[in-house]
Specification:
The chain is of the alpha+beta class and 264 residues long.
C-alpha cells in the first residue's frame, strides 16, 4: 500500500464538504482553494507539483509533475495536510460549486481513473494527479475537454467533484452509453471513450444540443453529472449579461419583463 489510508465522512446535499480523518502522521493532498477547516494539530505544507511519491526523483521530477498540472489548467502547487499530533484529527474540504463529491477507492477501480480537468478535490497522500492525452483526433477536438484530461493513479482514496446530481453507470463488455460531452465526469481506464457526430440537418441546425456527443463503450464504470459548470456559466451569462440587456431593449423584451415581474 503506497497511499496513506484515510477515513472520511460527507456532509450536506447540494453544497457538500468532505471531512477527512487522519491518524498520526497521515496526510491528505488537496487543490489550492478547497480547504475549509481543520483541527489544531493538523499542519499545512505547500507542495510543488502533485504531491505523489513519484516526485522524489529530484528537481527534474518535481518540474515535470508541476508542468503536467499546468496543462490541466491547475495551479503549480498543491497543499498537504498532515496530522502531527496524538490521536485522530480532522480536516475538511468544500466543493467549489453546487453538486456532489464522489468518493473513489482507486484500489477497487484498477488503480487508475480518468476524469474531467477540474474534477479533482483531494486525495490520500501518494495518489498521483497527472494528465491523460486523448489518443483520437476527433475526441481531442470535439470532446468538450480537449486533448487533455486528468488521471488519478494509486491505490488510495480520491475525491472528485461534479455539478448537479451524479449517477454511476456500470457497462458490460460491448455496452455503449451516449452522453453529452460536458456531462462526463470520470470513467475507469477499461472504458473506450470516443466522439460521435449527431447527424441530420435538423438535428445539427435546430437541435440545440451541440454537434457531437460522447460514446463510451464498456466494460467499466462511468460517472455522469447532470449540470456541468460550463452549462451553468453559459446560462448565467445569457440571462444576466449582454444578451439579457439586448433583449430588454426591444418590445418583446419589455413584454417578457412585464410578465416575469421586472417591469419595463
Amino acid at each position: 500500500m503506497l497511499n496513506h489510508e484515510i477515513d472520511y465522512k460527507l456532509y450536506g446535499e447540494e453544497m457538500q464538504f468532505v471531512e477527512i480523518e487522519l491518524d498520526p502522521q497521515e496526510s491528505v493532498i488537496a487543490e489550492s482553494g478547497s480547504f475549509m477547516m481543520m483541527d489544531a494539530d493538523v499542519t499545512m505544507q505547500t507542495i510543488f507539483g502533485d504531491g505523489s511519491q513519484q516526485q522524489q526523483g529530484g528537481l527534474f521530477g518535481k518540474l515535470l509533475s508541476a508542468g503536467k498540472r499546468i496543462l490541466t489548467g491547475e495551479s503549480l502547487f498543491m497543499t498537504a495536510f498532515t496530522n502531527v499530533g496524538m490521536g485522530k484529527k480532522r480536516v475538511s474540504f468544500a466543493a467549489p460549486y453546487s453538486g456532489k463529491i464522489i468518493p473513489l477507492d482507486l484500489c477497487n477501480l484498477g488503480g487508475k481513473l480518468i476524469c474531467q480537468k477540474d474534477a479533482f478535490l483531494c486525495a490520500a497522500k501518494g495518489v498521483a494527479v497527472g494528465i491523460e492525452f486523448q489518443r483520437k483526433l476527433g475526441t481531442g477536438l470535439f470532446g468538450g475537454e480537449g486533448f487533455i484530461m486528468q488521471k488519478l493513479e494509486g491505490d488510495g482514496m480520491a475525491f472528485v467533484h461534479a455539478g448537479g446530481m451524479v449517477v454511476e453507470k456500470t457497462l458490460g463488455v460491448g455496452d455503449i452509453l451516449k452522453i453529452d460531452t460536458g456531462c462526463v465526469v470520470a470513467y475507469t481506464q477499461s472504458v473506450d471513450f470516443d466522439i460521435e457526430f449527431v447527424g441530420g440537418v435538423k438535428n445539427t441546425i435546430f437541435g440545440g444540443e451541440g454537434l457531437f456527443f460522447a460514446t463510451l463503450r464498456g466494460p467499466g464504470k462511468i460517472w455522469v453529472q447532470s449540470l456541468p459548470i460550463s452549462r451553468l456559466a453559459d446560462r448565467i451569462i445569457r440571462y444576466g449579461g449582454a444578451g439579457r440587456q439586448r433583449e430588454q431593449g426591444g418590445p418583446l423584451g419589455n413584454l417578457g419583463n412585464l410578465l416575469d415581474g421586472d417591469g419595463f
